[in-house]
Amino acid sequence: MLKTILSISGRPGLFRLVNRGKGMLIVEDIASGKRTPAYARDKVISLGDISIYTDEGDTPLSGVLDAVKTKNEGNPVDIKSLGKDDAVRAYFAEILPNFDQEKVYTTDIKKLLSWYNLLISAGITDFLPEEPTEQEETKE
């Protein structure tokens, strides 16, 4: 599911991939539903390709978002109520205890939590990738 959700540098929010054109993507803002083009010069990244640094390697963003959903029982996170940087990092340590304290910045954590809130408000709650069915496995 997260493969089709995109972050575009310089644009606030998250976008759903609608279609591909020559040298551009057609994307839809998940909050407003407004469709716009994203050109080849724009830095576009799929949320499915993002991972968080941990002490043992990397953890996919889908697993972290699912852990946030579990901790908050599917409700949005009130980022402002968390307060200062130390409180945000302590909150994130409850979700992902082994995150790399040096490589993961507080701004990264806040962005992750704001993405989680955007996804929840858009009705996107399935963060983990779907397991391939037996029929798909036999085709390969």
Automatic annotation (TrEMBL):
<dbReference type="InterPro" id="IPR041218">
    <property type="entry name" value="DUF5606"/>
</dbReference>
<dbReference type="Pfam" id="PF21186">
    <property type="entry name" value="DUF6852"/>
</dbReference>
<feature type="domain" description="DUF6852">
    <location>
        <begin position="50"/>
        <end position="119"/>
    </location>
</feature>
<protein>
    <submittedName>
        <fullName>Uncharacterized protein</fullName>
    </submittedName>
</protein>
<dbReference type="InterPro" id="IPR049281">
    <property type="entry name" value="BVU_3817-like_C_sf"/>
</dbReference>
<dbReference type="InterPro" id="IPR049282">
    <property type="entry name" value="BVU_3817_N_sf"/>
</dbReference>
<dbReference type="InterPro" id="IPR049280">
    <property type="entry name" value="DUF6852"/>
</dbReference>
<dbReference type="Pfam" id="PF18347">
    <property type="entry name" value="DUF5606"/>
</dbReference>
<feature type="domain" description="DUF5606">
    <location>
        <begin position="2"/>
        <end position="47"/>
    </location>
</feature>
